[in-house]
Every structure is written in structure tokens, then in C-alpha cells.
Amino acid sequence: MRDHIRLLRDIFYTCLTLLVLSTSISKAYATEDISRFISDMGTTKTDEGKRPHWNAIDNTLKHQLTQQYRSPDYDEKRFFTKYIELIPAKAILGFLEAEETICHRQAHELGRAIFRKTNNINETLSICGNSCTNACMHGAIGEAFSDDPSHHEGNTHSQTNESSHQTTSGIDKLLEMMEPFCHTSEMARQHKRGNCAHAMGHALMLKTDHDIGASIDGCRHFNEPGMDYYCATGVYMQYMDHVTSNGSRQADTQRWGSNYPCNKFTTYPAACYRYIVSEVKEERGLGLEHLIMLCAQLPADVRGGCFHGLGAAYTPLIIEHPTLLKVVCSYGGNKEQILCIEGVIEKLADFNEQRASEACKALGSETRDICIAAAQGKMYQLDKPSMYLYRTGIKPKHNRH
């Protein structure tokens, strides 16, 4: 009898928590476009005192740029190509950071435009810094390495052994260059190596004309442990950028299923699902309980990746309500819970360390230490103990020799 009472009590509290969670989600959607937050990134905001001097720009020009940016006819490539010639790039970055809650997706194209103007990757990296949660850098790297490398000879290669590249071209040249480049002075000075690998995933997708399979194979050319995974995150983020801009996502899901491309390319499930879960959530109007069921019914080797994506999808809500981490990441086995917690906390800690700490305190003792370690390592940690959970069907390259 006592066990039955305990079971009924647990069911009651679970239902009550889900009701609170659903209400919070509705409020979040009513007050803010939650999709702005769903992207893979370091999320440290630029301090107000360090923000580029957007306010110093001529008021007429500022008004013109703002109106065009908000226009229904806005085309990001034309927009940034035009204004990069009229306004300093750092000022445009300042505008984006003031205009958008998180300007990650918007700044990809600006980074490309800056590199097209400077034709020098180190100069572009210096301009971009970590603005818009590193997206400017991601776009610049994608542009620099995705085009015919001969266009940028002596610039993108300036920090590598150029003579070793003379007999290769195209994708082979990119594959040879990407790991050395991630250790070069300007890149290494400003960004974690895992962040650079993520940017190279963008570049591989652009270089292969958005061939996911070929790009994932390219990521495995990284020798340093963990770099292959973060490269894959760039591949899948670039896929989402591409299908969002050209409207082809619906055609893909009609042909391959709503979980595409994660149901076709399964080597790095967490890298894929951290973007796709939020899209499936919006496309199908699914709540937490339905997403949990979606993840739970997947094959065991990719299930954890789906729970990682579920955590990433609910990060914006957990930023506002840190104690909800315990609700969102309490399902599945130990592997699924670890991946879910890291899907939330690594990004949340970059954005707000205090909120990450509050979220970790809500967890039980069996997962609290994992959460604290994720908060300390933040995004793009190469040596985290759980890295083996982020691949399926393969071993890291350095273990295959």
C-alpha cells in the first residue's frame, strides 16, 4: 500500500512539473523567438564597453542600414556586400549584437563578406574576434577555405608550410591545411582548437557543395582527438543554414523523414541531433514528452545523441529557469542523461556561468559532478571524459593505427 502511495505521489509531481514546463514554454514563445538561441556556439556576450562603435556612424546611414536589415526583401549576401564598403565591419558587428539577442546565424554571412573584402584570413580573424558568439569567424573560415585555394594563395596559407601543398588542389588541399591552420598564431590566440574545427566543418560543406557524407569523411582527417566531432558540428550547422536559406528542408524531410540527416549519417549523432531536434520540435509542434518518446525509440547507438539535441533545444528555457535541467535531462539511462546535460550546460556556461551553476545544483549527486565538469569545460572541450559517447561505429583516428 505504501509503495502505491509513493508511486501516485511521484506521478502527481511529474505531471505538475510538466505542466509548469509547458506553461513556461508557451510564455517563452510568446515573448521571444526561441529559435534565435538554437545554434552551436560559444555564447559569451560582448561586454558593452568593448562593443564596436556603431553609435559613431552617420545617423542617415545608420537609419538606411537598419531599415534594409528589417525589410521583408532583406537578402543577407547583398546586404553585407553593400554595407561592408560603407561602414566599418566592427561597427556592423556592433549593430548585429545590439539588434539580435544572439546574432550567430546572422553573422556567418558578414564574416564571409569581410574576408572577400580583405582577402586575408588573419586580418579578418582580427576584425571578427569572438563577435556574435564566434559566428563571424565561422563564416570567414568557411569563405576562405571553401573557394578555389589559388584565389587566396599566400593569405590562408601564410601560417602553414606552403611548399607541401603544391601538388594537391581542391578538397585535398583543404584536408591537408585544416589541422595545421587550427594551430596557427592568430587562430590559436583567439579561439579554442575545437571551435576552429567547427569552422572547418562549415568550410568542408561549402567546398563539397553541401555533400554531408563527403564533409563528414573530411572531418575524420583531423588527428587530434575530439577535433573530428567538433568539425562534424560545423557540417550539420552549415546544413541547417543552407536549407533554411534556400527553403529545401521540407523537401529533405519528405524524402528522407523528419530526422534527416541524422537518420542517414549516424557517425556523429550528437553533432547532428543538437540542430535537428529543435527543428523537429518546431516543424511538428512537439512538446517535451513527445520529444522524449521520439528519442527513446531510436536505436541504442544514436539514442544518446538525440537526448543531447533535446538538451540543446531546451537550453533557452533553462537559461530562464535553471532548475528545469533536472526535468529535461532525467530520462533515459546514464549515457543519455550525460549527453543531455552536456548539451545544455556547455553552452549555458559560456553564456552565463552563474545560471549553469544553479542548474547543476538542482541535479542529484549521481549526475551533479558531470554537470559541474561540463560547466567548467564549456564549449569545444577536446579532452572531456565523455568524448567517447559522441561517436558511434568508429574509433577516434588516433586509435586506429
Structure description:
63% of the residues lie in helices and 0% in strands. The protein is an all-alpha fold. It has a domain at 268-401.
SSE topology:
Elements (H helix, E strand, L loop, with lengths): L1 H30 L27 H12 L5 H8 L5 H11 L4 H15 L2 H8 L6 H12 L23 H12 L3 H6 L2 H15 L4 H8 L7 H20 L2 H8 L12 H16 L3 H9 L3 H14 L1 H6 L4 H4 L5 H18 L1 H9 L3 H13 L24
Helix pairs in contact: 3-5, 5-6, 5-7, 6-7, 7-10, 8-10, 10-11, 10-12, 11-12, 12-14, 14-16, 15-16, 16-19, 19-20, 19-21, 20-21
Summarize the structure.
The chain contains 21 helices and no strands. The protein is mainly alpha-helical.
Short descriptors:
401 residues, mainly alpha, 21 helices, disordered N terminus
Radius of gyration: 21 Å
Largest β-sheet summary: none
Number of helices: 21
Kindly name the structural category.
mainly alpha
Low-confidence stretches: 2-52, 148-168
